[in-house]
Specification:
Layout lengths: L11 H11 L8 H22 L8 H16 L3 H38 L6 E2 L3 E2 L3 E6 L16 E5 L8 E10 L5 E9 L1 E2 L5 E5 L1 H25 L4 E7 L4 E6 L6 H17 L4 E6 H6 L13 E6 L5
Antiparallel strand pairs: 1-3, 2-7, 3-6, 4-5, 4-8, 5-6, 9-10, 11-12
Helix pairs in contact: 1-2, 1-4, 2-3, 5-6
Length: 315
């Protein structure tokens, strides 16, 4: 048995790391120091989970909760030795980050230069890495959907040419993120062969998984429409997760939903699904999409042109 929740294996490792950085021992510290360390441990755990779930510090809603948690950790960490060590650790991290960014820029420059020489051929930027290694492949163009707006990135397999009459390297991709510019980071494991800079890439998306994500993406739109129909148009989406096996839909409303409202929402969505209503997607300037009734997520970043899904069900 432990004396309190802070000393369980969920929070104690964070407290011990904070103690190490502050050059103190949690076990023999006075009550005030222990209190500071408990605040840091508890709040840092919450901050990591919130940010990992897509909640970014802001002045409204959940974002404001994250901001307040971060600021309290910073304020609490002003206990002299903790603050001093955190500053030293921050400096060490910044120096490491700067070295890594410089190396990344060099690799990207090589990749983009190679892509330009090959014209439209997607180009790989990575150090030479062999089978079984985890790898991040940087491509200047890709058929893979990069994680955005709560929808996870595609899975699939880039096939990398190793030369004439040579077998291709195969990488299993499990995550795709968009980096700065038009660079896409594909994270995965090398299943076969060797990966190195400048090779041509043939990228194949896992179509079955993408279709599952598309189904859940459409379901979030149906859920939002049903919510507005049942409880009123003042409700608004506050975030979502669109995965291959599930979805999560966050929304703002001044009270919990009633049981009969949940039943009505479920019945409406099931009716729309059974009707097999045709969805149409158009690409148009964002201003035109809004004039036609598109609902934009507050805080979400959009390009000059957006994909606009049109449906014909009655809301």
């Amino acid at each position: 048995m432990v004396p309190n929740n802070y000393e369980t294996d969920l929070i104690l490792p964070i407290i011990e790391k904070a103690s190490e950085l502050a050059n103190v021992s949690y076990g023999i510290s006075d009550d005030q120091t222990k209190r500071y360390l408990k605040i840091v441990g508890d709040h840092m755990r919450a901050i990591v989970f919130l940010i990992s779930d897509g909640v970014i510090p802001s002045n409204v809603g959940r974002g404001y909760v994250v901001r307040r948690l971060i600021r309290r950790v910073v304020h609490t960490s002003r206990a002299p030795r903790i603050l001093e060590e955190l500053k030293r650790e921050e400096l060490r991290f910044v120096q490491t980050l700067e070295r890594g960014e410089k190396l990344l820029e060099e690799k990207l420059a090589d990749a983009i230069s190679s892509a330009e020489r090959n014209r439209t051929v997607p180009c790989l930027a990575a150090v030479r890495i062999s089978e079984g290694s985890n790898v991040e492949i940087l491509l200047n163009k890709t058929p893979f959907y990069a994680e955005s707006g709560g929808k996870i990135g595609d899975h699939g397999f880039p096939y990398i040419s190793e030369g004439e009459n040579q077998p291709k390297a195969v990488v299993e991709i499990i995550d795709v993120q968009k980096s700065f510019g038009n660079i896409f980071v594909h994270k995965g494991t090398i299943n076969k062969g060797v990966v190195e800079i400048g090779k041509q890439v043939e990228a194949a998306v896992n179509v079955k998984l993408r279709q599952r994500a598309q189904v859940h993406h459409t379901a979030t739109h149906l859920l939002q429409a049903a919510l507005k129909k049942v409880i009123g148009r003042e409700t608004s989406q506050a975030g979502s997760l669109v995965a291959f096996d599930r979805l999560r839909f966050d929304f703002n409303f001044h009270r919990p939903l009633l049981d009969n409202e949940l039943i009505d929402i479920e019945l409406i969505i099931n009716r729309w699904v059974e009707d097999a209503i045709l969805l149409q997607t158009k690409v148009m300037p964002i201003a035109d999409a809004k004039r036609e009734g598109a609902i934009a997520m507050f805080g979400e970043k959009y390009g000059e042109e957006v994909g606009f899904t049109i449906n014909t069900f009655d809301i």
